[in-house]
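Hi U.,

Before I forget, here's the chain from the pilot set. I'm dumping it here mostly so it's searchable later in email.
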Amino acid sequence: MTDHPSLLLRATDLIGHPVVTLDGGEAVAEVKDVVYGTAEAALLGFTLRRRGFLGGPMKLVLAWERVVTLGRHAVMIATEADLDQRNAVLVQEVKESRAHNVIGSEVITDAGRRLGEVTDVVVLVADRPEVVGYEIGGSEVLTPRSGGHVFVPLPETLAVSGQALMVPAAVEDFVSDDLAGFGASVERFRDHLRASP
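Structure:
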C-alpha cells in the first residue's frame, strides 16, 4: 500500500464513493457503510453495494489494507480481486458495529456535562485512518456559530459505555465549528492532554 495523504472527512461523506480499480479504471462497487472499530478508533474498511440506481448490497467487503488511495471522490484499489468475502476480522467488526453504532450516542464529559449527540464521525485519512472526532448536534452547552453542529476532538483513547461516549472536560476548549480547521483542534487537544499531569 502506498502512503496516503492526510485528509479530514466525515464518515458519511464516504458513503456512495465509487470503488475504482487501477488496473482497469472501472468502478466495481460503491461504499455502502464505513466500518470502524470503536476500541482502536480506526477505519477498518467498507461494506459495499453494486453501482447504479438499483444497486443492492454485496457480500464482498473491502478491508483498509487493500485500499491504495482514498480521496474525496473515490476509493482506489489495485484490482477487483482486492474485494473479499473472506475477511473474517472485518466481517466480525461489521456485525459488532451494527450492534453498537455511535451515531445517536450522547457525548458526556468526565465532569458530567452532556455536550450533545453524535451525528457523524470525523476520520483523518493517513497511512492508517483514525477516528479523531465527532460531529455533534443538540448541544445545550456548546453554541455553534453556524449550522447547528460542532466538531469535538477525541483523545487517543476513548471510554465507550453503553449509549454514552465519555470525553475529558477539557474538550470544551477545543471544539470547532469548521471541519477545515478541525485537524489543528485535534492536535492542540491531544497536546494539552499529554502535558496534563
